[in-house]
Design goal:
Blueprint lengths: L1 H19 L36 H21 L1 H20 L3 H31 L5 H38 L9
Helix pairs in contact: 2-3, 3-4, 3-5, 4-5
């Protein structure tokens, strides 16, 4: 994790140096991301910038409520999330049956959390893209494909880590006899 942070810091420093030396173009005032939703939309509620809001426990609790609502929306409406939950239930069931230790449970829980989080982010990207335009657009298609690719990468990584985590327990359970008929 420290390595990833150092790489990100190095990449940011290189971008800053390149912009400072005018090797990269400066960002223009009219960014392609400077769009707004229809102000007459009744579902859109204006909120003050984060810097203008004071810290209160009520705001933090409300933020957790919004986050829980977002998770609930994804788990209710997204078919892919149902598949991931099924795989998670299978992994948890297998872990209970094989009686894996705490270290193995950490890997399983981490994999489940990362795959579900990636699915939620993918859904957020798709929802945002659909809010911008429903017409086919190559850049929106790329963004959706990249977000789906991130989910696939997380799911494949979870599958590999799950196989590596469960393999010793499966070998151990198949090597030991289930019933010892010869003992008295």
């Amino acid at each position: 994790m420290i390595c990833c942070a150092l790489i990100a810091l190095l990449f940011g420093a290189l971008l800053w140096i390149a912009r400072t030396l005018r090797l990269l173009p400066a960002t223009e005032a009219a960014s392609p991301l400077s769009w707004t939703l229809d102000p007459t939309d009744p579902t859109e509620t204006p909120t003050p910038p984060a810097a203008a809001q004071k810290f209160t426990w009520r705001h933090r609790a409300r933020s957790f409520g919004y986050a829980a609502h977002g998770i609930k929306l994804v788990l209710r409406r997204e078919h892919s999330a149902w598949l991931h939950l099924g795989a998670a239930a299978l992994a948890i069931g297998l872990g209970l049956v094989l009686q894996i230790d705490l270290a193995a449970w950490r890997w399983i829980i981490l994999c489940i959390g990362l795959v579900i989080a990636a699915e939620i982010l993918n859904t957020a990207v798709e929802t945002t893209c659909n809010a911008i335009t429903t017409a086919p657009h190559p850049l929106i298609g790329r963004a959706k494909d990249m977000a789906a690719g991130a989910v696939l990468l997380c799911a494949l990584t979870a599958l590999i880590l799950g196989a590596l985590t469960f393999a010793p327990y499966l070998r151990e359970s198949t090597a030991a006899p289930q019933w010892d008929i010869c003992s008295g």
